[in-house]
Design a protein that fits this description.
90 residues, 46% helix, 5 helices, 3-stranded antiparallel β-sheet
Amino acid sequence: MSTNTPNEKGTPQSRTYTVNDIAAILGIGRATAYKLANSGAFKTIRIGNMIRISRKSFEDWLTAEGLDDNTVRLCLMGVMLHQCNLLAGL
């Protein structure tokens, strides 16, 4: 069973983010991203010493923090980092 779903271009898209992914999305450091991942704000999966973050859970968390869909989309694209940092409480 594949853990990837196709994106708009038809290429596989992972169903999880890494800690480095969420650090880049939110414009925060790795240590802060690890703290956020371990905070219980969204679903995570541990595989050995690796942490994987549920893409849906993370994106739902972004939306629940009060951002509209367009801002969430821009945040996920790496735009509007200041708003994403505020969202993460950083």
